[in-house]
Amino acid sequence: MNLPTHVPLAAQTRGDTVESIHYGSLVATAPDGSILDSIGDAEAGFYPRSALKPLFAVGMLRAGLELTGEQLALASASHNGSDRHQQVAASTLADAGLDESALANSTDLPYGPAEREGWLRAGHGPTRLAQNCSGKHAALVALCVQRGWPVAGYLDTSQPVNELLRTTVEELTGEAVGATSTDGCGTPVYTITLAGMARAFGRLASAGPGTPERRVADAMRAHPDLVAGEGRDVTAVMRAVPGLVAKDGFEGIQVIGLPDGTGLALKIADGGDRARMPVAAAALTRLVDDRTLAEALQPLLSVPALGGGHRVGELTAVVP
Fold it and tell me: Stretch 194-201: mean pLDDT, rounded?
């Protein structure tokens, strides 16, 4: 087994003592796709997990799928499972003459803690519509209807959906995918380098008007609450920085594109989530010399460590 050569990216203190260290790798790319900065292992392939969703959405638009801005944002989302999130996913299905029974994603409770608590209090259990990837799956089956592809078994590797997703990822990242596996929700997931994902998001964020890439980026910018949800840092960073496009992925993935075409991608080695946004925010402030941007990102630079209900330390980036 070849292990990536990750380096320390974040540390949590308690009092004056470093309590925990998170290792990882980070890559920033220029608008032309060249590497601006690389920390850790830029060459290792990794699974971007849900950070692939905006790229999948581009492929679906290229194949002719028509969605509203809200539906397109949700197709790119790992949403909280709020009533609104579920209603938008249901509207994508209804516009294609389908309902929740067409979905083949895993069942789950809402991802957001407040949404999950309210859902359970109302007596509901896990459903496919509540699961955080339902917007993507609703768009996939809607595309199948439009193209005359089989809806039943749409996730089978022999179905045309799978070829569409893979070739779109390769074109946008500029890389051939490595290993292929199955994401938690059932869709394919591919190994790609951090540099490839950074390039892809730089292209999304800087794409010309009317292109599928621009349509996805504009939908995410217009509806950051649909891309994640209230209380989520991905929604917060897109609200804080105009023009920025951001998507997280399970196992410590964060990818960001800026309107000038700059891209940023990082992986937290242990798969933990808490270090992901502080490292990304610190890297952005270092990458872009802009006081307004630095002020906007300030609330995302650290996570408090609590003792007795009081702040006694913090988790912050240690990006060299």
Answer: 98
